[in-house]
């Protein structure tokens, strides 16, 4: 399988998302074609600044996807996923905005005729990964954390609140899944970076809930969620759970070595939990 | 709302009339992770606009505390696109230059946007440096975390860039909106 991949700005410096995605895709024979010369999607910032600019930023990717001859774009970041989808919907429903966006892109030497389908890496790997890749991890309990912008606002990949796709993925690759109620509660996103004290309660609530249901590991599908939950666990009297990417767990299930999955990059070490017999 | 239309700085927002369907149930406010920090919870923003209290909305910190989690939007019984409206409010407020001065998010967004304009891509450390020029205490507080990230090879200090940043910046020039005169 060949996919057209949009990494987004946080992919390369995230805690092993890049390493594990590349390793898992190699193993599954998925060819990752990164969009050459991709740019930032504008995330949660640009639509609050300037709608046309926000749409054009996102659509520059769509034009590049078209040049590459792909019909679909795949990303592993929730914010990129929701932002690109938002731009795609606006462009599809608003002829005037579409024309203005085309004009901006033409000025940059790019043509845009069609909007690609935008998919999250989780959807793609869900289809590609074999059932019960391994039973080595069947006693390891994992809490799935979705964050906000995978299932909301569109609710078509799964339900907006209490989705199940990540739990199904984890069961399929042979992990024990712990049910909990914090899967789509907000971690504070970019506000957590500068309104640290005000947002601390958000991540604490998520981690406590997942720990209280007996999970030993949290798994995420978004770089900012991973970062917020990982860096929030600095106080000694709180439970400490490694916050992994779903691709890292997929890699382990496929028999790949932790060192090849960037697991050493987590702030809360996963070593003890993952190497116990 | 109609009697105030001429004065309504938000009247350019597409589908603003949807707020007339708000039944003031407060589901949005109750779903909001940061409504405790807002001067007006989302529900009140709609009531204020309907009352013509535009100044209150223009200076409100509410849109700047919106984390874009979309919980309000998927739960609204009247299917009002609450989060999208928060974005649209920010766009109007930015244009009018009335963002609350003591709020840190407008400066963060400016630093973020400027980083995209300069290089086409975000390099988190560079956004923090630019933001830190306005909020040095905040930036300094993040140094211990930056060190931890550095140890694990996760701190990128070199700018990620598109191939031709100069030509990319045209995207910003072509989409510039002139600021309204106060």
How does this structure look, described?
The complex is a heterodimer of chains A (277) and B (182). Chain A has helices spanning 17-27, 51-68, 78-93, 95-107, 121-128, 165-172, 191-194, 196-212, 223-231, 246-253, 271-275; strands spanning 2-6, 31-34, 72-75, 117-120, 141-144, 176-177, 217-220, 243-245. With 277 residues, chain A is of the alpha/beta class. In chain A, the strands form two sheets. A four-stranded parallel sheet of chain A has the order 2-1-3-4, sandwiched between helices. Chain A has a four-stranded parallel sheet with strand order 6-5-7-8, sandwiched between helices. The radius of gyration of chain A is 19 Å and the shape is globular. With 182 residues, chain B is mainly α. In chain B, 52% of the residues lie in helices and 0% in strands. Chain B has twelve helices and no strands. Chain B has helices at 27-31, 42-51, 54-58, 62-65, 71-75, 82-96, 105-119, 124-134, 136-141, 143-151, 165-168, 170-174. The mean pLDDT of chain B is 93. At the A-B interface, α2, α4, α7 and α8 of A face α5, α6, α7, α10 and α12 of B.
Short structural summary:
The complex is a heterodimer of chains A (277) and B (182). With 277 residues, chain A is of the alpha/beta class. Chain A has eleven helices and eight strands.
CATH level 1 class label of the largest domain in chain B: Mainly Alpha
Global structural class of chain B: mainly alpha
**Assembly type of the shown chains?**
heterodimer
Q: Encode the helix/strand succession of chain A as letters.
A: EHEHEHHEHEHEHHEHEHH
Number of domains of chain B: 2
Percent range for β-strand residues of chain A: 5-15%
The greatest inter-chain interface is formed by: A-B, 57 and 57 residues
Characterize the largest beta sheet of chain B: strand count, sense, and whether it forms a barrel: none
CATH domain fold name of the largest domain in chain A: Rossmann fold
Number of helices of chain B: 12
């Amino acid at each position: 399988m060949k996919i057209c991949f949009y990494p987004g700005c946080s992919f390369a410096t995230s805690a092993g998302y890049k390493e594990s995605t590349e390793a898992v895709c190699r193993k599954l024979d998925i060819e990752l074609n990164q969009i050459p010369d991709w740019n930032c999607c504008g995330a949660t910032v640009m639509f609050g600044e300037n709608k046309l600019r926000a749409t054009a930023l996102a659509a520059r990717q769509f034009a590049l996807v078209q040049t590459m001859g792909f019909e679909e774009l795949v990303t592993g970041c929730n914010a990129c996923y929701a932002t690109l989808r938002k731009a795609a919907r606006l462009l599809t429903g608003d002829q005037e905005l579409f024309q203005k966006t085309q004009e901006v892109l033409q000025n940059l030497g790019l043509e845009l005729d069609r909007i690609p389908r935008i998919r999250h890496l989780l959807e793609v790997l869900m289809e590609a990964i074999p059932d019960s890749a391994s039973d080595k991890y069947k006693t390891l309990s994992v809490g799935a954390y979705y964050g906000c912008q995978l299932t909301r606002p569109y609710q078509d990949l799964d339900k907006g609140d209490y989705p199940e796709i990540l739990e199904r993925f984890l069961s399929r690759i042979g992990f024990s899944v712990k049910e909990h109620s914090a899967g789509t509660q907000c971690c504070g996103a970019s506000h957590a970076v500068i309104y640290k004290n005000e947002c601390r309660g958000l991540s604490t609530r998520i981690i406590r809930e997942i720990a209280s249901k007996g999970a030993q590991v949290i798994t995420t599908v978004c770089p900012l969620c991973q970062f917020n939950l990982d860096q929030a666990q600095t106080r000694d009297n709180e439970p400490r759970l490694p916050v992994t990417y779903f691709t890292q767990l997929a890699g382990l299930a496929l028999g790949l070595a932790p060192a090849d999955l960037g697991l050493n990059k987590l702030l809360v070490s996963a070593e003890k939990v993952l190497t116990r017999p | 709302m109609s009697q105030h239309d001429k004065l309504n700085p938000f009247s350019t927002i597409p589908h603003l009339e949807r707020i007339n369907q708000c039944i003031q149930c407060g589901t949005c406010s109750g779903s909001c992770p940061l409504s405790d920090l807002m001067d007006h919870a989302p529900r009140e923003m709609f009531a204020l606009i309907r009352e013509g209290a535009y100044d209150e909305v223009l200076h409100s910190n509410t849109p700047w505390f919106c984390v874009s989690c979309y919980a309000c939007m998927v739960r609204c019984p009247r299917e009002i696109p609450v989060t999208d409206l928060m974005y649209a409010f920010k766009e109007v407020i930015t244009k009018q230059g009335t963002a609350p001065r003591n709020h840190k998010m407008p400066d963060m967004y400016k630093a973020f946007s400027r980083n995209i304009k300069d290089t086409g891509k975000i390099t988190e450390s560079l956004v923090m440096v630019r933001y830190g020029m306005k909020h040095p205490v905040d930036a300094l507080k993040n140094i211990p975390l930056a060190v931890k990230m550095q140890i694990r090879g996760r701190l990128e200090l070199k700018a990620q860039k598109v191939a031709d940043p100069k030509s990319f910046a045209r995207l910003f020039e072509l989409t510039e909106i002139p600021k309204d005169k106060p």
